[in-house]
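Consider the following input, taken from an annotated entry for TIGR03643 family protein (Wenyingzhuangia marina).
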Amino acid sequence: MKTSFSIEQIDRIIEMAWEDRTPFDVITFQFGISEQEVIEIMRTEMKLSSFKMWRKRVSGRSTKHLKKRDFVKGSFKSTRQKNITHNKISKR
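Applying the prediction step yields:
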């Protein structure tokens, strides 16, 4: 790893990597490290069993890679989310 991070930054990288919906591209944008460097951080900072569980879970997961996601880039609205009607109170 070429860059040294503070304890708080390492904790944030691990937290973001652990979250299923945070793509590696966001971690790269925020911290300037590659997916492989994230994996190295996870490997060195976590217990072996936790790392293996995480690695098994995220391998091939489409939500961890922006190019594999099935929604339009920049759109974070779920298809199941109801439309908001300009905050108007519905008639009763």
